[in-house]
Structure formats: C-alpha cells, structure tokens
Amino acid sequence: MPETKTWTAKAIKLLIANRGDLEYEFNSNKKNHKIWEKISNILKENGITMSGQNCNTKFRNLMATFRDNVQRANKSGEGAINWEYYVLMKQYFGKKDSVTPNQNTLLESSLPNSSKTSLNIGKKTDEHTKMSKPQHPQLLHSIDEEINSDEDIIPKRKKKKNFQEILLEEMKEDRKARDSFQNKLENFMDKLIQIETAKLDKM
Description:
The chain has helices at about 10-20, 25-30, 30-45, 50-75, 85-95, 105-110, 115-130, 135-155, 165-200. It is mostly helical and about 200 residues long. Among the domains are: about 10-95, Arc Repressor Mutant, subunit A; about 165-200. Residues about 130-135 have low confidence and may be disordered. It comes from Schizaphis graminum. Pfam families: Myb_DNA-bind_4.
C-alpha cells in the first residue's frame, strides 16, 4: 500500500473516525499524547504517515471549523453548510458541550454583562440570606420588647404646627395686645376726665 504524508480526504475521514471511536479514552485519560500516538499508528497501518502531534493539530483545526459551521447551521439551517466533513463530525462530536453548550450556558452567554452581574449578585444575595437567618429568635424577640418598652418611656416629640395654627396664635396675641392697649387708653381717658372735672369744680 503506497504511503502518503499529506492530509487527503481519506486521511482526514480516517482521523475523524478513529478520534471519535476513542472519545471515551480522551475523556478519562489525562495523557492524551499516548492516545494520539495510537491514532498515528492506525493511520500508518492504512498507509498514512502522520505523527501523533500532527494528528492532534489537524483535529483541533477540524473542530474549530466544525464549531463555526454549527453556529452557521443554527442561524441559517444545515442546508447552508457545504463543508464535506460536517456530517461525519456531527456524527461523532455533535453532542459535545464545547460544540452545543447546555441551555444555561447559552442563556448566560446571550445576556449583556450588566445582566450577568445582576444574576451573580442575585445568587450571592440568596446565599447571604440563607446564611444570615437568625440563630436565636427568642433572644431577638426579647430585644424587640425592650426597644418597644423604651419607646413608652421616651417622651414624644411635639408635633410641628402648620401655617394656619401659627397664624391663629399670632392673631390671638395681637387681639390680646389690642385689648390691653384699649383698656389702658380707657383708664387714661377716665383719669384725664377726672382731672378736668376737678379743675372745673375749683373754678
């Protein structure tokens, strides 16, 4: 079988299929370079000479292109997709969270920054409310009773007078002043009459 060192359509499809078949191993094993070497050996058995690192790099590029096409399909429909590896990639990786995030992730990503902040604040507020529940309700009740009893002892502030009440009081004061002046005037006139009468009697 002739060997090839270029990424032909056959080589790419073989890479996608083997990477998809080993998805579980990639998710459960942190040392992915060994799995890429396994894929490299499978490709070599089929006449394709590619290193594990080369396979890894090529697959990353394929995933980036696939994500772009998924977004385009969500907006315009899959009929607008003409990428030849789209169906095969969707078959193996269409349900990955990195490709189709869950509803909560989509909701948060579609919100503006201020709304995200509000949501985070709301979550923190709920947590704070749960943590700040009174631990000793009886003690708080007794404190409330003491506060209420203190309110009975503290004298209440005088109610502020409105304009009409102030005007009435001023009118009353003016009337008292007029009455007092009139009384003084009458007394003065009486004394003056008495003096004049006394003078007439002497004449």
